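Page 47, continued from p. 46.
Same chain as before, 176 aa.
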Amino acid sequence: MSEPRESAESAEAAQMLQSIEQRRTQAHDGTGASRWVDVVFGVATFAVLAAPDFFGSGVTGWTTPAFSALAVVYVVMLKTRRGSAVLGQRARLRRSEISGRYALVSRVVLCVIAAVGIALALLQPDIGVHVPYWRTVLGVLLGGALILFGGRMQRALTSMATGERRTAGSAFDGRV
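Result:
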C-alpha cells in the first residue's frame, strides 16, 4: 500500500519541481529589453559609425558624446523600476544566480577588447589599404546585427550567465 502512495508523492514532487523550473525560466525570459530598445541602439550605432563618411570627421565631436549619453541614460534607467518598465525589462537576475566563471570570463574578454581598441587608437596602424565608406559598412553590420539578433543575444547571454541549459526549442523558433 505504501508503494502507490510513494509513487504519487514522487510524481507530485516532480511536477512541483517542473513548475518551479518553468517559473524560473519565465523570470529569466523577462530579463530582456523590448525590441524597440534594440532598434534604437542599432540605428544609433549605424548613425555614429556612418556619420563621418557622409559629413566629415568633424561630426564625431558630437556624435560620440551623444551616443555615450544615450548609453548612460540607458544604464541609469535600468537601475530604477520605472526606467526598467519603460525599457520593457520586467525582471533582473540576482547576482547570486550569475556563475562566477561566467563573470570572470566576461570581464577578461571585455578588458581584452578594450585594450585592443585603445592600442589601435593610440598606434593608429596605417596598412595602406583605403576602403571607401568602411565605417558605413561596419555600421550596417553592427547596427543590423543588434536590430535582428539583439533579443537572441540577450537570451543566450542570460542562459550562459546562469548556467541554464535550454532543452525546449532552438534558434529557429526564437529560443536560444
